[in-house]
Amino acid sequence: xxxxxxxxxxxxxxxxxxxxxxxxxxxxxxxxxxxxxxxxxxxxxxxxxxxxxxxxxxxxxxxxxxxxxxxxxxxxxxxxxxxxxxxxxxxxxxxxxxxxxxxxxxxxxxxxxxxxxxxxxxxxxxxxxxxxxxxxxxxxxxxxxxxxxxxxxxxxx
Length: 157
Description:
By secondary structure, the chain is of the alpha/beta class.
């Protein structure tokens, strides 16, 4: 029986739980011939509040451009870290660096569908009950909307 190549989507961010989830993936799920799809969803920074009031409002476009560049560099750095790990471990990989469409969870699900992924692996960030209720949980969204096997590596205190 010949194993078929499959694409495992792995969601990357700058958290420690993501690094632990990557180690878990490499030790427990990855098989020779598999490809890991490194997914990083790029989020545009919040537009700064203009200075002043009424007709005297001043908008610092340079500040926003700097925030945008900083966010982009941070995102590229995060993705580069995992690309390097894959190269060091001789793991075939692809990168999916995408701007957030609707929400992070929706964007992950869209990438999984477009790329015909076989499953999704992600770390649980460990948001508290209040933050999860107010902000929503990306992992909950993906579990309920991806229609793919989804592995959530739990956050450990």
